[in-house]
Amino acid sequence: MNEQILCPCKSQTLFEFCCSPFLNAKQLPQTPEQLMRSRYTAYALQNFTYIQSTMTGSALSAFNLKQAQNWAATHRWVGLRILDTRVMDKEGYVTFIATYCSDKGKLGEIEEKSRFIKSGGRWVYVDGDVKPS
Q1: Which of 11, 67, 82, 123 is deepest in the core (most CB within 10 A)?
Q2: Does the pLDDT value for residue 9 go beyond 50?
Q3: Is 7 part of a structural domain of the chain?
Q4: Domain total of the chain
């Protein structure tokens, strides 16, 4: 039996029709928001291969797989709110708040304005401005 679950990105869409095609390399995200949502879902599911494949430049070179895995072992993503999206030709921005819970039950959140570019026909994450908490 195929279990129907809502996508972790909080789109209120079934996972199989939302982020799953991106994470399983069946489709490419067509907008910066789709890419951002799929990256959030990949973090929630600890799919770090997908995370790395959707980055470029300094974001990619600064990505620390071991650090991401260690953090994921003691935290889980529990919420995503998209505050704003802007797309101008081959550059886009998504401002969001991602909520997480530690293994001690403490809630935290990250607010970021992420920058994406369209390169080689696909959107990739370039960098982001994180609002201090």
Answers
A1: 123
A2: yes
A3: no
A4: 1
- Taking residue 28's Cβ as centre, other Cβ atoms within 10 Å add up to 14
- Integer angstrom CA distances of residue 75 from 4, 28, 39, 98: 24, 28, 16, 12
What residues pair up with 80 in beta bridges, in sequence order? 98
* Structure confidence by residue, pLDDT tens digits, 63-113: 999 999 999 999 999 999 999 999 999 999 999 999 999 999 999 999 999
Q: Is residue 120 in some structural domain? A: yes
- Residue 4, in any domain of the structure: no
List the structure tokens of 75: 């935290």
CA distance 127 to 57: 9
Structure tokens at 109: 């959140």
- The C-alpha angle 24, 64, 117, rounded to 5 degrees, equals 60
